[in-house]
Design brief:
heterotrimer; A alpha/beta; B alpha+beta; C alpha+beta; A: alpha/beta; Elongation Factor Tu (Ef-tu), domain 3; Rossmann fold; six-stranded antiparallel β-sheet; 19% helix; B: alpha+beta; Jelly Rolls; four-stranded antiparallel β-sheet; 4 helices; globular
């Protein structure tokens, strides 16, 4: 498995440091990206998450969506859906917030060396995989083909469209996007994200897949990848559960024997399948 | 020569890959080459579904228009896909509009011709049905996922 | 440890000596007291605070105290476990407020009070050892637990009586203490105690008590007392192969049957001495504008325990919640911490308002998967 980075050196892993929003970017309705500064921030590994808290409201896990190669830049992308995320997303530039982390394991980029890498993201799931995309492109010679398949609900809800276009213009990454439905004027794909797999070429025997999105989507993506010949142990996905502590002590994020926060959030399909397929586990 | 060429093209499409020569000849007897320019419609909702389009090049958007909501694309398909499942089921009507997103080259199968041949030769009919069934099931599965609207609830 | 082989016999009066020595060494002494019809743990000033002559009768959904004999430690276990002290129901984590225009976050101080626990049962020692694995041995430590745990002095008391709900013999945790104590006592029917030291500090304190070296007969008598307690135990939980059985039976119809009875009240998780789950909650002080975060006991029986961001609960049904609790306790705990999460104290049976019995549920699932 991947290495676990130690969180900020602090006596109590439950006590946050004070972070500040330096830049606020409205991505799409209800989704914002924050660039933040935090004391003693020592960087992270792609795939890790932080606990972000609004004082007086609460704290939630948010994956880091910026480049790991720039340890000074801490970037988070947040969708406002619950009380805490709404309060978070409503914060202005200059606002203070609580930060704990980084927590969790990383996308296994080392085991993907020399292989084809297929990244499949759905909806806001593009944010947690963006750091690994940066890593793949920054270390492009370490990998064979790099393919990004991204599915969103509607064209207007697609994240990071500027970057997607820029990546699409490169010759060393294949990018295919699709939406569930689109109004007239959209000239791209319409259909489920797994249907994009049929249009791209990769060597399934030498492919690592990184998948992030809603759990149902990840399940279907894993099946489609297995059908295409990718080994279950080479299909990695980032799981979400109700995390309160992020350090394996509060018990909320258990999935069978696993603590998602401490043992994950990234697991391979071989390990995850029996757990994910058991309803209400 | 023309028929032979069509047979090769029909046999090379994913829909009929590995189809027996005898059946391929029968199917190709109903086939013709068609082209659509970007923006042209292959079919319109409500019209008789008298054709099947086996897309060779280009992309086709399947759309439905609703007053006040504009036109909505619910599926796009590309090379090696097929447009037209309604020809199998009475009353054989298109239930959507299909518009060429870019220049499209396709094989058109005359549905009346193919239905007739299938009715007369159940063995052919069964083989043809087996070729269309996976496309139908796949479309059903994809539609189910779209219906679940999975991207809406996650952060 | 060195002196574990040389036990001593002390009189009941030495209990007061013990308490006062502990207090003089700066310990806050906590022990069993009778309150609101139950034996709970609280401060004890002298042996007079102990529930001498009180014993409990327990069964599924029932707990009653009555007077019988004159033993100091005749009761077994009550609703409260030492978890209340070491991993309390509410633990402040930090406060945040604006001071001189600057936002400050202040960590809640750890509790450095040295506590001496008097009357810790063998099953409770096992429970403390299990929580040690959770809070101290993982990649992250709970500093509050660690601080309380570090200063602990434990006087264990072996059981010479069992309740109907006890099944420590199945879990290998009692009725005799084996580890994790400073001093262990076995109460004789004549009011004296056999005392063993389990640590250097325990040896030192034991040496200061009036008593005499135990002879073979004393040791045999102590052995006989715990043997008697073991013989009284009627409940049994067969643990052989149980983790696999439970993990491979998520669709067993028994889960539906138990869910039909389970009220989802979470009592079992509150009284369980090993259940460790917590919520983290935000508290606001309207007057000062400060906010604070506290950690509170949580239960996997509640709906919001598995709430998914922007969705609903992962475990929607009572069936899945009971299954999670029991499977975690008896099966996946092994994967996570290398031991069972059950010590066989029977509290979950006693304090379940409908008397759901974990041993019966485990047996039912084992029974039908093994064909009887």
């Amino acid at each position: 498995m991947s290495t676990v980075l130690a969180p900020n050196p602090q006596a109590d892993p439950m006590v946050p440091v004070l972070a500040r929003i330096t830049r606020r970017i409205e991505e799409v309705p209800d989704v914002v990206t924050f660039e933040m500064e935090a004391p003693d921030w020592n960087g992270f590994a792609p795939g890790q998450f932080n606990m972000l808290g609004v004082f007086g409201v609460g704290e939630i896990p948010i994956s880091i969506s910026g480049p790991a190669s720039e340890p000074d830049r801490l970037v988070h992308t947040i969708r406002a859906v619950g009380p805490v995320s709404r309060a978070l997303a409503g914060l202005a530039e200059g606002a203070a917030l609580g930060l704990r982390g980084p927590f969790g394991n990383e996308w296994p980029v080392e085991t993907a060396r020399g292989r084809d890498v297929v990244v499949i993201a759905g909806g806001l799931g593009l944010a947690p995989v963006r750091p690994v995309l940066y890593h793949l492109l920054e270390n492009r010679n370490d990998f064979n083909k790099v393919i990004l398949l991204y599915g969103a609900r509607r064209p207007e809800e697609m994240l990071f469209t500027g970057e997607l276009s820029a990546w699409r213009a490169r010759f060393d990454i294949e990018v295919a996007v699709t939406v569930d439905h689109a109004a007239i004027g959209w000239h791209g794909h319409v259909g489920v994200v797994t249907s994009l797999l049929r249009n791209v070429g990769f060597d399934p025997a030498s492919t690592s897949a990184f998948v992030c999105g809603p759990e149902i989507m990840m399940r279907f993506a894993a099946r489609a990848l297995v059908d295409a010949g990718v080994a279950p142990g080479e299909i990695w996905m980032s799981m979400e559960r109700n995390m309160h502590c992020a350090i394996g002590l509060c018990g909320h994020c258990q999935l069978g024997p696993v603590f998602i926060c401490r043992d994950g959030p990234i697991f391979d399909w071989a390990r995850l399948k029996p757990l994910m397929m058991q309803e209400e586990l | 020569m023309a028929i032979e060429g069509l047979e090769r093209i029909v046999g090379a499409h994913a829909l009929f890959a590995g189809f027996g020569d005898e059946f391929l000849e029968l199917v190709s007897g109903c086939a013709s080459n068609v082209r659509f320019r970007a923006g042209e419609y292959l079919c319109r909702e409500g019209d008789p579904a008298d054709q099947i389009f086996m897309v060779r090049d280009g992309h086709v958007a399947q759309e439905i228009g609703a007053p006040g909501q504009g036109r909505m694309t619910f599926l796009t398909i590309g090379p090696n896909s097929v447009i037209g499942l309604a020809w199998l089921v009475p009353p054989y009507r298109w239930t959507y509009d299909a518009r060429a997103q870019d220049d499209v080259r396709a094989i058109s199968l005359d549905a009346t011709c193919l239905r007739g041949k299938c009715d007369r030769d159940p063995a052919l009919g069964y083989e043809v049905m087996k070729r269309f069934m996976p496309a139908i099931v796949k479309r059903l599965h994809d539609t189910r996922l779209q219906l679940l609207d999975v991207y809406g609830a996650r952060s | 440890m060195a002196d574990a082989a040389t036990p001593v016999v002390i009189e009941a009066s030495a209990l007061d000596q013990l308490i006062s020595i502990l207090k003089s060494k700066g310990f806050e002494v906590l022990g069993p007291v009778r309150r609101d019809g139950a034996i709970i743990h609280d401060h004890v000033e002298s042996s007079a605070d102990l529930p001498r002559g009180w014993v409990d009768a327990q069964s599924g959904g029932r707990y009653r105290l009555h007077q019988e004999g004159d033993a100091y430690f005749g009761y077994t276990v009550g609703p409260s476990s030492w978890k209340r002290l070491l991993h309390p129901p509410e633990q402040p984590l930090w406060r945040c407020g604006t001071r001189d225009g600057e936002i400050r976050i202040d960590a809640a101080p750890v509790d450095e009070t040295r506590h001496a626990l008097l009357g810790v049962r063998p099953c409770e020692l096992a429970a403390i050892a299990m929580q040690d694995k959770v809070f101290l041995d993982g990649p992250y430590r709970d500093p509050h637990y660690a601080a309380r745990r570090e200063g602990l002095f434990i006087v264990a008391v072996n059981c010479s009586r069992s309740a109907e709900t006890c099944f420590c013999t199945s879990m290998g945790t009692g009725p005799k203490a084996r580890e994790c104590y400073d001093i262990t006592l076995t109460e004789f029917s004549d009011g004296r105690f056999l005392a063993n030291a389990g640590s250097t500090e325990g040896t030192e304190i034991l040496g200061a008590l009036s008593g005499r070296p135990a002879d073979a007969a004393d040791v045999d008598a102590a052995e006989a007392a715990t043997d008697a307690a073991a013989r009284q135990i009627t409940r049994r939980l067969e643990t052989r192969g149980l983790p696999e059985i439970l993990k491979t039976s998520p669709e067993h119809p028994r889960w539906d049957e138990v869910a039909a009875r389970c009220l989802g009240c979470a009592n079992c998780t509150m009284v369980c001495p090993t259940c460790f789950c917590t919520d983290v909650e935000e508290i606001n002080d309207l007057a000062s504008g400060d906010s604070a975060r506290v950690q509170r006991w949580a239960s996997c029986f509640t709906a919001d325990f598995t709430y998914l961001h922007g969705g609903g609960a992962v475990r929607e049904s009572s069936r899945s919640r009971y299954r999670q609790w029991m499977t975690h306790k008896l099966a996946t705990w092994h994967d996570q911490f290398g031991t069972s999460g059950c010590v066989g104290c029977g509290r979950c049976i006693t304090w379940c308002p409908v008397g759901i019995d974990i041993t019966e549920e485990a047996a039912a699932i084992r029974g039908s998967t093994e064909g009887g």
